[in-house]
Amino acid sequence: MKKLLISGLFFACIPYSDGYAATTLYTQDFENPNAGAFVNDSGDVNIFNPINALYGGQPAGFQFAQTFTVETLKIGGTQAWGTGFLDPQARAGNYAISMLSSNQNDLLGLSFNIGTYKYLNFQMDVSSIDLDRWGGPFVATGGVAPVFRFSLFDNPGGGNGVTGGTLLSFADVTGTATALKNTFDWTNHIIALDATGNTNGNVILQIDELQGGYAALDNFVIAASDKPSDVGQVPVPAAAWLFGSGLLGLLALRPSKRR
User: Fold this and answer.
1) pTM of the model
2) In this structure, what are the phi and psi dihedrals at residue 5, rounded to the nearest 5 degrees?
């Protein structure tokens, strides 16, 4: 009976794994900065070391490009706002990155080759947060929902940068407004950026906060796929169906009490 049950559940999974052939280009939860790279410049913020100093070479050869000061925040410290940055959802772990929208136009660029795939798909967490120093606070009293724009540029030369040639597509993501300047309120998003028309597979993904004053990002999953929003994970409805199918299988194979 055990062999029959395992086989039945295995074959139930096959149709839902087939076709999810996204190629993962990059994952980053920002939990492992390069040795000695994070420096608390005050306020639980590393403002002077660029993102490359902390996360360049993850994986080998990978580099960020940035304009102005894209910061790295330490969660669970004691300096920011006198309490440290608080993460009641436990989504950020120990570190997250952050940027300004208004005082200066912070930009972050990531370069990839997506081959012949049609879409660059990007899953990330975003949250409003604020600084109590380094010119802050930046978020208006009462809170402002952060808006990020993710733009995909053609990059025929294949170099690093925050912008490239032709703009291929873009998508905007809106987080939630919170009046708690020291507390993250993460929302998760998946966007699909159409890469149709790129020259040779090389593209630049640009991240720009359009409004909100100041905000954070974390937990990147970036994949190339011919399906929009496919980052290589079984969708929740399918996972729920499999769980239900497993229960039905167990019920069908359970000996009847009447017998």
Assistant:
1) 0.83
2) -65, -45
